[in-house]
Amino acid sequence: MPVYEYEHAGKGCARGKRFDFYQHIKDERLKTCPDCGQPVERLIPSVFVSTPTTDSELKSKGFAKLVRRDEGVYENVTALDGESRVWEAGKADTMPDIKRRITD
Questions:
Q1: Residue partners of 41: CB distance under 8 A and separation at least 6
Q2: Mind giving me the DSSP string for 41-104?
Q3: Does the first or last residue of the chain, that is N or C, have fewer Cβ atoms within 10 Å of its Cβ?
Q4: C-beta atoms surrounding 14 within 10 Å
């Protein structure tokens, strides 16, 4: 069941100025606080997603970044120890070791 965040229009009550409320997704949003009856508004949740931006962040998170250097030739700028820095299309032995990067 989803958790929605609400905010009192006034000072709040025992729940506080802002409070979380479990509701079924099909339920109507609250118009008043279930405890004190004050008017409330449902807030839009803020979502923060951290995206790796540097090669070292990509490497530490298990990503492989290939940069095209020539026709069918790519440089693996996030190569792990033992991996080839150059990947050539059609040569499997130069491909990044995906099994080392992905863990359960």
A1: 6, 7, 9
A2: EEPPPP-------SHHHHHHTT---EEEEETTEEEETTPPTTS-SEEETT-GGGS--HHHH---
A3: C
A4: 8
CA angle 49, 54, 59 (to 5 degrees): 90
CB 30 within 8 A of CB 40: yes
pTM above 0.70, yes or no: no
- Interacting residues of 52 by C-beta distance below 8 A, sequence separation 6+: 58, 60, 61, 63
DSSP 42: E
Sequence letter at residue 83:
E
DSSP assigned state of 8: E
User: Using CA atoms, how far apart are residues 88 and 59, in angstroms rounded to an integer?
Assistant: 20
pLDDT tens by residue, 28-45: 999 999 999 999 999 987
Tell me how far apart the alpha carbons of residues 19 and 6 are, in angstroms, rounded to a whole number. 5
Residue 83 in tokens: 């991996």
